[in-house]
Amino acid sequence: MTDYNDELMRYEEAAEDQYDDYDSYDDEDEDDFDSGFEGAEDGYDDDFEDDYDDYDDYDDDGEYDDDSYDDYTKSSIGKIDPNDRTLTVVVTNASGASAQAVIFGANAENAQPNGVVVDIEESSHKEVREESKANPFKIAGMKYSVNNPLQFDNVLRIERRTASGSKTTRVYQPRNATSPQNFTQSLIDDDNFEMDVTGQDSLRVVVEDGVTAVFTFTIKARANLGNLLKGQNVAELSRAPRTTGLPQIDLARRKRPTALGLRPKRRRSRRPVRRRIVRRPVRRRVSRLRRRRR
Questions:
Q1: Residue 69 confidence (pLDDT) above 70
Q2: Which helix (H) or strand (E) holds 142?
Q3: How many helices (H) and strands (E) would you count in the chain?
């Protein structure tokens, strides 16, 4: 009968010949069994760490910087000259009765009532209408002055009419813009007034008899199709803040523009780089059975 320990030793020696390369021959009692990952494990870790370090250096060098990309995006938009962003609209009613004046509305080209005159101090109403068809613009801010404060009781109607016949109307009440900061009863300064001026848009207001109303609009953004000929962005933006005459408000408004979907540039703090730690498998020491002497 084969001794039990001899049979067990044969199985162990066969297993060691197949899976073990005997790292240590000096120790007769114990042997270190390899995990099979010793050679590949060290090389993989070194290569991974080298690549990861190179990535860190690439990021630190700023080869691809979000801040630079933001600067490129903002610089592609043209700048409106601060002296070329004002429209002064003078509406005069000498018809002997209240009448509705039509400002803008290039596509419809509605005629003014008899005795009502709409004029643009910087150019002409016809020129502004024609230009709004090809180069639409956005109004942000309005000063509304009259010779009779009762004119402020009449609302402004902002209409948009398409060629297919649909029409939308928004109502603006000038009295809502009155505040202690408007020192005179004949002037309303509203920085929150906004209106898109295209060929479809018009501003309608009922003007009392003998009243002269002056609208001072500030252009915030506009499209200049002439930039296409130069391969530039058609959008142009006014970067200078609109002046109200009140120092406490003007100082607060001196910030970067947010029109046309642009957000103020923020200085981003660089986050610390996290290094990936790869845990190596722990070598297990397995005791070897000793052959019992007969």
A1: no
A2: strand 137-146
A3: 5, 13
Helix, strand and coil percent figures for the chain, each rounded to 5: 30, 30, 45
Q: Give the closest residue to 72 by CA, choosing from 270, 271, 267, 265.
A: 265
Q: How confident is the model at residue 279 (pLDDT cuts 50, 70, 90)?
A: confident
Paired tokens of 170: 């928004």
Q: Which residues of 7-28 are buried (b: 16+ CB within 10 A; e: fewer)?
A: eebeeeeeeeeeebeeeeeeee
Rg (CA), the chain: 40
Neighbour-count burial of 118, counting CB atoms closer than 10 A to its CB (0-12 exposed, 13-18 middle, 19+ buried): buried
CA dist 160 and 166 (Å) reads 8
pTM as predicted: 0.59
Looking at every residue in the chain, the average pLDDT score rounds to 77
Helix, strand, or coil (residue 116): strand
pLDDT at position 259? 53
